[in-house]
Design a protein that fits this description.
single chain, 85 residues, alpha+beta, 3 strands, globular
Length: 85
């Protein structure tokens, strides 16, 4: 299992950590941001395939920010894909 950290941009959350094992997501955690929403996302993505999470979360928008915490999670996963494939 590999663990990665990411500093999201343009959102309230300041750091994400995630563990990947056999292309499945485990132990997603976020620092700051909307605590309830991020806790819900954490439970939803637990055990999901990385590509499925990217497909579902990429492009989700928060107000007029041009991104969101879900979109930033997708960007994070895209950034680390070459390290987990």
């Amino acid at each position: 299992m590999k663990t990665f950290e990411y500093s999201p941009k343009g959102v309230c959350a300041t750091k994400f950590t995630i563990s990947i094992d056999n292309h499945k997501i485990h132990n997603f955690k976020a620092i700051n941001g909307c605590a309830g929403n991020l806790a819900g996302i954490s439970k939803l993505v637990e055990g999901m395939d990385v590509d499925e999470v990217i497909k579902r979360l990429q492009g989700v928008q928060c107000h007029t920010k041009g991104t969101s915490c879900p979109d930033q999670i997708a960007r994070f996963l895209i950034q680390i894909k070459d390290q987990i494939d």
